[in-house]
């Protein structure tokens, strides 16, 4: 068996008996001498390279994505008999860390602090001494804050305990209600009530037709005044024009976006210069953890006829 791993992946390579693990260039078409491979690992290849691989690699049995999102695997057009598996779970820790960092940066008003540093200004308003809320109405501590995590999957299961450990009250929102990982999770039809008491909204939604612009003008108006918004899911799930309007009106006190609807975010986007916005360039999930174990397990399942982890519906 031949397994192709792109050079964009810098983690440990899988160790599989009787398998030839070959590292190939992520940005170039699969070399002709390797189109006979049965397993293709996806990490960093552009869509045109994957589309070419789908057309030329006639012996493929498994495409193992290391990305949490399945979008590019589905778009490449692999044959129906090729198993597609995502990297769900590989990014839980890093994304949870990033979401917590962005949340704390907004709560502790670090964008304003950085501006004041550039101005050489010692601004006492940043302290919020003896106050429950900042000057703009936002919470100034996670202690007692109402945090809503919209998209309560494996990443949220890592993030929610961190938030709770800092004193926050955490509510999850998902397609179906019920307790998960020790946290209350409500269905999306309960959003109006939940958003009305939310101090911090953390978005971890995937990209699909049902989540497009899920956080729109209507939902933003339902938020508690001076709420904070963090998005580490997919940029298409937020109506950016509506968010910008909510920020400028003061209804939303601040936002932190690791993802945007168009990436890279165009230089002309007003989000860059909005003083209450933090932007990071889709870096929350760039470090898949223990990916070699997932590859090894799924190759073993492929050989033995077992269940493939993270198998995607076609």
From TrEMBL:
UniProt GO MF annotations: NAD binding; oxidoreductase activity
SUPFAM superfamilies: Formate/glycerate dehydrogenase catalytic domain-like (SSF52283), NAD(P)-binding Rossmann-fold domains (SSF51735)
Keyword terms: NAD, Oxidoreductase
Entry protein name: Phosphoglycerate dehydrogenase
Gene3D superfamilies: NAD(P)-binding Rossmann-like Domain (3.40.50.720)
Keyword Oxidoreductase in annotation: yes
